[in-house]
Design goal:
single chain, 389 residues, mainly alpha, two-stranded antiparallel sheet, 15 helices, 2 strands
C-alpha cells in the first residue's frame, strides 16, 4: 500500500496577513477619529477616500511583490538599489522648498502637484542590497568565516551604506537615518560576524549615543554639534523629550499635548468621536495619541500586542527560510518595522524623542504607507516561493 504524501500547506501566509489587515482597519478607525476632531477638516470622507486609494495601491503592490521569483529578485537587486539611490539624489535639485521650510528637512520631492519621500523606497532597496552582499559573501566562503573575511564583509556593507548616509546627511533627516542604522545593525547581527567585532561595534555605538545626548545638554556641546550640521530643532527635540511640560507652550507643545491626550483616555478611553485634546499632526506622527485618548489603556495595549504578533509572525518566517537571501531580507524588514513601531509609540508616550517616524499601517497613507506593504510583500514572497517549490 502506497504511503500517502503529506498535504502541502497554503502558499499564502494567512497568519502574517491577519495582523496586517487588522492594523489597516485600526488605521482607518484612528484616521477617522483624528480627522473628525480636527477643526480645520470640513469633511472626513474625502480624506478617508484618499487613504482607501492608498490602501488599494498598497495591497496591489504587496501581492505583486509576493509573486516575484527569487531569481529575479536576486538579479535585479543591484538595479533596485541604484534606482532608489537615484531617487534620493533627485532631492538635491527637486526637494520641496515649502516642506523643507516647515520641517527643516529636505526629504520630499516635488514634481508638479505630486510629492513623495524617496527615503521610504531607499529603505527597501537598502535591505535588498545588504541581504545580497551578505549572501554572496557567505556563498563564496567555503570554510567558517575568519576575522579577515568579516572585515571584508563590513567593508562591502559600509561601501553601499556611505552614499545612503551621505544623502541622509543632506536631507537633515536624523530620524530616518536611525532607521537605516537599525537595518544595518540587524543584518550585521545575523550575518555570522565574529562576536569580537560585534561587541566593539555595538559598544562604540552605545558610547556615541550617550555622548551625543550629553553634548546636546550643554552649550559647548551644541556648538560642536552645530559644526556637524545639527539643527536647532533637533536640539529642541531632546529638551522637549526630557522636559515636555516645562516647555509645553513652545518647543514641546506637540509632545506635551500628546501625553495629555493619552493620559485623558484613562482605562477605556473617551470614545472615537469625543476627542477633546488638540494634538498637532495627529493623523501622522502622533496617531498613537488617538488610540490612547479614544480607547484608553486597554486599546493601546491591544494595539501593541497586535504589533508584537506581527513581528512574531515575521520572525517565524525568518527562522523557516530555506534560502539565505530571504533570511537576510526578512531580518532587514523586521528591523525596519520594529524601529518604526518602537520609535513612534515610544515618542508618543514620552520614552523617546520625537523624530517624525510614522506608525506602520496606522499613520496617514503616503509613501511610507506604501513601503509598509512592499516590506510585507517581500516576506510573503519568501513564504510563497518556499511552498511553491
Amino acid at each position: 500500500m502506497r504511503k500517502a504524501l503529506p498535504a502541502k500547506s497554503e502558499p499564502v501566509n494567512y497568519a502574517l496577513l491577519l495582523p496586517v489587515f487588522l492594523l489597516i482597519i485600526i488605521g482607518f478607525v484612528a484616521q477617522y477619529g483624528a480627522f473628525h476632531a480636527d477643526p480645520a477638516v470640513e469633511s472626513v470622507m474625502p480624506l478617508l477616500k484618499k487613504q482607501f486609494l492608498w490602501t488599494l495601491l498598497g495591497l496591489a503592490t504587496m501581492f505583486t511583490t509576493m509573486f516575484i521569483p527569487i531569481k529575479y529578485l536576486w538579479k535585479f537587486t543591484p538595479t533596485l538599489y541604484g534606482l532608489s539611490l537615484f531617487l534620493m539624489g533627485l532631492l538635491v535639485k527637486f526637494h520641496d522648498p515649502v516642506m523643507a521650510a516647515a520641517t527643516g528637512t529636505k526629504r520630499w520631492i516635488r514634481l508638479g502637484p505630486f510629492s513623495f519621500q524617496p527615503s521610504e523606497f531607499m529603505k527597501l532597496g537598502y535591505i535588498l542590497m545588504l541581504a545580497y552582499i551578505v549572501t554572496r559573501r557567505r556563498q563564496r566562503s567555503e570554510s567558517p568565516s575568519t576575522l579577515k573575511e568579516d572585515f571584508r564583509l563590513l567593508g562591502e556593507l559600509s561601501l553601499v551604506s556611505l552614499p545612503v548616509f551621505g544623502l541622509m546627511f543632506y536631507q537633515k533627516d536624523f530620524g530616518t537615518s536611525l532607521v537605516f542604522i537599525s537595518i544595518f545593525l540587524g543584518v550585521i547581527l545575523v550575518s555570522g560576524c565574529s562576536w569580537k567585532i560585534l561587541t566593539v561595534g555595538f559598544g562604540t555605538l552605545g558610547v556615541l549615543g550617550v555622548s551625543g545626548i550629553l553634548l546636546v545638554l550643554t552649550e559647548r556641546g551644541q556648538k560642536m554639534l552645530t559644526y556637524l550640521h545639527f539643527q536647532p530643532y533637533q536640539f529642541n527635540r531632546i529638551h522637549a523629550w526630557l522636559n515636555p511640560f516645562e516647555y509645553a507652550d513652545s518647543i514641546s507643545f506637540q509632545q506635551a499635548r500628546g501625553l495629555t491626550a493619552i493620559g485623558s483616555g484613562e482605562m477605556v478611553g473617551q470614545g472615537l468621536t469625543n476627542l477633546q485634546v488638540y494634538v498637532p499632526v495627529r493623523e501622522s506622527d502622533m496617531i498613537f495619541t488617538v488610540i490612547g485618548e479614544a480607547f484608553g489603556f486597554v486599546g493601546t495595549c491591544a494595539l501593541i500586542l497586535l504589533f508584537f504578533y506581527l513581528i512574531y509572525q515575521m520572525l517565524i518566517c525568518t527562522l523557516n527560510a530555506k534560502r539565505e537571501f530571504y533570511a537576510y531580507i526578512t531580518t532587514g524588514v523586521i528591523m525596519y518595522f520594529l524601529f518604526h513601531i518602537l520609535e513612534n509609540i515610544g515618542s508618543n508616550i514620552g520614552l523617546l524623542p520625537l523624530t517624525g517616524i510614522p506608525l506602520p499601517f496606522i499613520s496617514q497613507g503616503g509613501t511610507a504607507y506604501l513601503a509598509n506593504f512592499i516590506g510585507v510583500g517581500l516576506i510573503l514572497s519568501m513564504y510563497y516561493q518556499k511552498e511553491k517549490d
